[in-house]
Prior knowledge:
Layout: H1 6-16, H2 24-36, E1 40-46, E2 52-61, E3 64-72, H3 81-95, E4 100-106, H4 110-118, E5 122-131, E6 136-144
Parallel strand pairs: 3-4
Antiparallel strand pairs: 1-2, 2-3, 4-6, 5-6
Family: Belongs to the acetyltransferase family. RimI subfamily.
Protein name: Ribosomal-protein-alanine N-acetyltransferase
GO molecular function, one term: N-acetyltransferase activity
Amino acid sequence: MRWWDIEPVMELEHQLFPEDAWSRGMYWSELADTHAHGTRHYTVATTPEGEIAGYAGLMAVGLESDVQTIAVAERWQGHGLGTVLLTDLVRESVRRGCTELLLEVRVDNLRAQRLYERHGFAPVGVRRGYYQPAGVDALVMRLDHPTTNNPEEDHG
């Protein structure tokens, strides 16, 4: 994701998340952190015509990473784009040496929960009233990354 993607991302953001859309400032801040500190990774998926069909973001600090956002335009839902975006975030989390990837998903977003479950995420808790201003709870889900064993320690 680049600065010129923010306006089309904002259009999708307001369509998909009318109650709890991020602000332009939040996206500007995330992209600034991507370049200043390297703790963020944001990507967009485009149609053959160059329109943004989806976007996703990751925060990785130390051994932990967190899905900041993931969204797919309604007309592209059900075509595997969510899987492509989520796979990109999982790969980036592993590449950065993280041991786990966390996310929050609205408790009423069953479609997204099924996507995450298909990719190995498991529920680990609930954040009450997380999504504002509606006060909707968030289901916290986690994916543990496989750790590589040190062959010198494998003396079985």
